[in-house]
Amino acid sequence: MEIASEYSTIQTDEAVAVVNMPSGDSAFLVTRYEDVKTVLGDRRFSRAATLAEGAPRLGPVPQNFPTLLNMDPPDHSRVRKMISGTFTARRVNTLVPHIEQHVSSFLTDMIVAGPDADLIESFAAKLPVQIICELLGVPMSDRPQFGAWSRAFLATTSKEYTPEQVKEAQVALFTYLNQLIETKKADPQGDILSELAVQNAEDPRISDLELVFLGVTLLVAGHETTVNMIGNGIFALLLEPTKLDELRDRPELIDTAIEELLRLFGPGTEGLLRIATEDVELSGVLIPAGSAVLPSLVAANRDEDKFEDAQSCALDRDEAQHLSFSHGPHFCIGASLARAELRISFNEILRRLPGLALAVDPAEVPRPEGLLVNGVARLPITWDADAARALHEKDSHTLLDSHTLQEQIQ
């Protein structure tokens, strides 16, 4: 899981290089940390301009919908304000017991079934979908469809999907969210989509179409990146067993470890494409107005000028300051939720699956190409079944004793 040598060469020798994107259009690839941070946060680099007719695009399938990800201030600020209080650290803290319950349930199913298992299918692909769908109020019967829709929605150059299939998934997702929001307006429940639908009906701040696209953004971005980060992070630890043992033996490192794994193995390779709205100079390279600019998150996060011994994984690294959640107006609004899911997942996976190891050669772990997020398609793992079952039985008895004590106190 090393950084591509091309990124390192560009970062060292050029900093900014002209590259051809899968669409056939050219772009300035930006690789150094400070330059990437500038592209992400400076209003001279526009997301909205990528929607213009004839604008350069990343892949052959246009991602030209006016979602929150494709807006600039002040429109971006107006729409984002609708959900500014949705994923605050305080609100996420109230969700922790709920996340813990789901993590425990999925791991219990794996332990009871016994090794081997695909961690993506059995755990990583389930947890974030379950959490975000519950928060948004997506009916249980509709949830299995979202994984397929999201993967196709995020496809850029993937050979797994034709342009027609991507378009079909996009239309299906938009249509579903539109119908769901209309249902929430008529019969609101205690979920985020209901809150947004009622709030906007009483005090319209965004259009009905913007509300639908906001729902799509929350649903897709709210789970797909976390699915991939669980897979990437565990895969990285399995490739370095000493790091896995270190984190299992020192659970107090979990917060800095999560940030370090996000820095090195974050789910985004490149940030979202921007268009320069005026001439801008980065590291001595002039980027003319109208040019496409592609900020490389993976290169920035491994910039030796920013991070000491940047290629190594230091689970106790302080002040990681990675860009995996982006920066500026488009900083991930669900970062607190993602961190909570990752922290709980990693702690419990390492605790409840003694002897955790890859069940296949690392070269056999498939990594799909052409998606806006970067991850592993499958992660076959194995573990010490007897030790895991013994620990599960011990946890079950402890929980039962705790419930009995509470009943006696009451």
Distance, first to last CA: 53 Å
Proportion of helical residues: 40-55%
CATH-defined superfamily: Cytochrome P450
How many domains would you count in the coordinates?
1
CATH topology group: Cytochrome p450
Strand order of the largest sheet: 1-2-8-5-3
Mind describing the biggest β-sheet?
Answer: 5 strands, mixed
CATH class: Mainly Alpha
Beta-strand content estimate: 5-15%
Give the oligomeric state of the chains in this entry, treating copies of one chain as homo and distinct chains as hetero: single chain
Q: What integer value in Å does the Rg equal?
A: 22 Å
Structural class: alpha+beta
CATH architecture: Orthogonal Bundle
Order of helices and strands: HEEHEHHEHHHHHHHHHEEEEHHEEH
Shape: globular
Number of strands: 10
Q: What is the overall number of helices?
A: 16
Low-pLDDT residue spans: none
